[in-house]
């Protein structure tokens, strides 16, 4: 990754092409989507760190991969004849779904005549350093007691975290990745394919790194414009202190949370137009003194949304810089702050729509589960997870659907049901369902009145006839 924000200097820009803000968006490719899907159970901060993107951008992409109508969903997932999504593209590529143990990988590198051990490095956890260390594959064993001459074979297997071919990771225990034999998330890509395509992979990697470096510089410029020179200087000091604390890895969660809080306060103070204090004392003390001037003011919805935008801007920058461990910890703290704001109503989730129209559903506000159905319908209902349970997180409204045998159709129907429920929630008596019910009731009342009038008229005619007869 790249250097932290304290090293930024307007007078020392070493690239010619300046990115415009509208070009900062980095297009999602198929490889990015695969990484996102393979690690879908990981925390949002971990995904942002892996992909080098902001938290909200990753969250939005996750929503698209869940949307059956999106181009991203169609590109990633293969559909069956019935049009239902196959749960994982690994179901199509016939690969070993059990990760090859590291000892098998090491033995192949050691004995395969087509592989050069000098091209490989092993990453292992060192208990004394309390960190992951990288060592050449063919390093001699001078540290671990025993007869083993090669160090990588003397390391306990459970402490080996990953293996690299030159600069590319080809086996990773945490990510369940194996590009030596092609098992698990290796998706059938073996080491011979990696070696053959390495030059192309390296060029693409360098291209992405250069683009990310430009993105980092442009985001930093944007932050400087938002904060002003004085506040930006304070942010550089805060960042320098954070990086210095992280070197011996004595940094704790309280330090990271304080950094995120102070950075957010800098954005708030800059937005309120409060001038920076003189350049004396600690950076966070100055921030707290200034912040006391605006703490007791009423916070509007627009201010709260601005806080969310500030945190997202910071997450975009952090995802491109810092050491991996620190990067994930800072992103995790930013994510917690965002969730706290959402839970406390910092985002206006009310839907003001015209009468007769349904509110728009945002995928980021939905929680979706697929469970086995019940009741009549045979094995397709009772033994497959095609029942959709949909929760709207801001309002806690839940709906479910198992109307059809198709999962994709049930997802669409469930969303329609949820829209109707939300319409009732937001618009009450003016909702589409209520208006339809009122219209039906009025129609029924009119029909009843007409029948009653017709019957009364008929009885009146019969009475007149009886009177004439008499």
Output the structural class.
alpha+beta
- What is the β-strand count? 8
Elements, N to C (H/E): HHHHHEEHEEEHHHHHHEHEEHH
Sheet with the most strands: spatial strand order: 2-1-3-4-5
Tally of contiguous helical segments: 15
User: Low-confidence parts, pLDDT < 50 over ≥5 residues?
Assistant: 11-23, 79-94, 275-284, 286-301, 346-350
Sheet with the most strands?
A: 5 strands, antiparallel
Helix content: 40-55%
Instruction: Report the mean per-residue pLDDT as an integer.
Output: 77
Number of domains: 3
* Cα distance spanning the termini: 109 Å
Shape: elongated
Rg over C-alpha atoms, rounded to the nearest angstrom: 31 Å
Give a written overview of the molecule:
With 470 residues, the chain is α+β, with helices and mostly antiparallel strands. It folds into 3 domains: 5-56 and 203-343, no CATH class; 102-186, no CATH class; 363-430, Double Stranded RNA Binding Domain (2-Layer Sandwich), CATH 3.30.160.20. It is built from 15 helices and 8 strands. Strand 4 and strand 5 form a beta hairpin. Helix 2 crosses helix 12 (324-343), helix 8 packs across helix 9 (253-272) and helix 11 (301-318) packs antiparallel against helix 12. The radius of gyration is 31 Å and the shape is elongated.
């Amino acid at each position: 990754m790249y250097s932290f924000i304290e090293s930024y200097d307007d007078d020392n820009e070493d690239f010619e092409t300046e990115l415009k803000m509208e070009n900062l968006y980095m297009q999602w490719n198929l490889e990015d989507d695969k990484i996102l899907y393979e690690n879908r159970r990981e925390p949002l901060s971990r995904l942002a760190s892996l992909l080098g993107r902001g938290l909200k951008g990753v969250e939005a992409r996750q929503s698209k991969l869940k949307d059956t109508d999106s181009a991203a969903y169609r590109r990633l997932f293969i559909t069956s004849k019935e049009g239902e999504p196959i749960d994982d593209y690994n179901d199509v590529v016939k690969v070993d779904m059990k990760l090859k143990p590291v000892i098998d990988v090491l033995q192949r590198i050691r004995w395969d005549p087509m592989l050069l051990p000098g091209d490989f490095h092993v990453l292992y956890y060192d208990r004394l350093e309390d960190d992951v260390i990288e060592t050449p594959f063919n390093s001699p064993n001078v540290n671990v007691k025993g007869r083993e001459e090669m160090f990588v074979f003397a390391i306990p297997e459970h402490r080996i975290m990953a293996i690299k071919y030159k600069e590319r990771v080809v086996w990773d225990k945490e990510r369940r990745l194996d590009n030596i034999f092609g098992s698990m998330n290796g998706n059938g890509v073996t080491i011979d394919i990696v070696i053959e395509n390495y030059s192309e992979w390296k060029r693409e990697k360098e291209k992405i790194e250069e683009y990310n470096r430009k993105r980092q510089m442009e985001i930093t410029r944007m932050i400087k414009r938002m904060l002003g020179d004085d506040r930006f200087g304070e942010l550089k000091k805060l960042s320098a202190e954070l990086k210095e604390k992280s070197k011996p890895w004595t940094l704790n969660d309280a330090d990271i949370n304080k950094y995120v809080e102070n950075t957010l306060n800098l954005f708030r103070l800059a937005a309120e137009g409060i001038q920076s204090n003189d350049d004396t004392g600690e950076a966070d003390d100055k921030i707290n003194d200034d912040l006391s001037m605006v703490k007791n003011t009423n916070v509007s919805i627009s201010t709260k949304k601005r806080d969310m935008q500030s945190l997202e801007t910071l997450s975009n920058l952090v995802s491109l810089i810092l050491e991996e461990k620190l990067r994930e910890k800072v992103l995790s703290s930013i994510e917690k702050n965002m969730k706290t704001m959402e839970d406390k109503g910092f985002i206006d989730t009310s839907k003001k729509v015209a009468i007769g129209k349904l509110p728009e559903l945002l995928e980021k506000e939905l929680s979706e589960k697929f469970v086995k159905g019940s009741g009549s319908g045979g094995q397709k209902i009772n033994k497959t997870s095609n029942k959709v349970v949909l929760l709207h997180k801001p309002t806690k409204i839940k709906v479910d659907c198992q109307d059809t045998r198709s999962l994709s159709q049930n997802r669409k129907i469930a969303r329609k049901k949820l829209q109707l429920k939300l319409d009732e929630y937001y618009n009450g008596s003016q909702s589409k369902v209520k208006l339809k019910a009122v219209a039906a009731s009025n129609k029924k009342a009119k029909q009843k009145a007409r029948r009653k009038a017709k019957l009364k008229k008929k009885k009146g005619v019969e009475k007149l006839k009886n009177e004439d007869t008499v």
